[in-house]
Specification:
Elements: E1 2-7, H1 10-27, E2 32-37, H2 43-51, E3 60-65, H3 84-98, E4 102-108, H4 112-121, E5 124-127, H5 141-148, H6 152-164, H7 169-186, H8 193-213, H9 217-227
Parallel strand pairs: 1-4, 1-5, 2-3, 3-4
Helix pairs in contact: 2-3, 5-6, 5-7, 6-9, 7-8, 8-9
Length: 231
């Protein structure tokens, strides 16, 4: 029986594989455990892993640790390096799959082509890929420009868009208050100086009230956006 652990997240694949082995050993203490590094993989070792058994040894638990380490290729291009451990696994894959022993193949970064071949024979596949980080959002000029132009509808729309895109309400509040201070210092056609000061104070009070009362800051920002014509 083959249990395949692979994927682009090497650390997670390794941790999960060793955790699986530890759990299996705890569940079946009678299992005889062996770990084969890539350099330990040979025809004799794989034959024993697939077929060992007898009066005193009923089942083996074998962890084959990264046998394809020297033959990793990009994307789904077939491996071309003639590595003994890799070719050995390929040659014994049917016997390992048919064995009553638990054969754990830990192969982070396995090529797509090879992963498909092993998965087709495996009892269970565990794949752990890195999650791509969301692209960083730049300065939200549309938000601050809507405030500067005193366009309530546009400001409300930009607040909603930013919240849906995952921006923290606290970050949006900070950006809006920065723009309010900027308007106070530099002036803006749509904001007389007295109203610019009132705008800044309103934003300060908005955050304080939200913290004190537990009001949803995102909702408070939406209400603020719709109210700016009357500030």
């Amino acid at each position: 029986m083959i249990y395949l652990f692979h994927g682009s997240d090497t650390d997670t694949a390794r941790k999960k594989a060793f955790a699986w082995v530890a759990a299996a050993r705890a569940k079946e203490p009678q299992l005889v455990y062996a770990r084969l590094a890539a350099s330990d993989v040979s025809d004799a070792a794989l034959t024993e892993a697939a077929g060992a058994g007898g009066l005193f040894v009923k089942r083996l638990l074998v962890l084959i640790d990264d046998p394809y380490a020297k033959t990793k290729a990009a994307d789904d291009v077939e491996d071309t390096v003639d590595d003994a451990s890799a070719t050995g696994i390929d040659a014994h894959i049917d016997a390992l799959a048919a064995s009553d022993n638990a054969i754990v193949i830990l192969a982070p970064g396995l090529t797509i082509a090879r992963a498909k071949k092993i998965t087709a024979k495996a009892t269970k596949e565990y794949k752990f890929d890195r999650v791509a980080a969301a692209p960083a959002r730049g300065f939200n000029s549309a938000l601050v420009n809507a405030l500067a132009s005193r366009d309530a509808g546009k400001l409300w729309l930009e607040v909603v868009r930013a919240i849906r895109a995952g921006d923290a309400p606290e970050m949006l509040h900070g950006l809006l208050h920065w723009k309010a201070r900027d308007i106070m210092e530099k002036g803006a056609r749509a904001w007389p100086s007295t109203e610019a000061r009132a705008l800044s104070l309103k934003l300060i009070m908005l955050l304080g009230d939200a913290r004190r009362t537990g009001t949803d800051l995102a909702l408070a920002l939406e209400r603020f956006a719709l109210s700016i014509r009357g500030v």
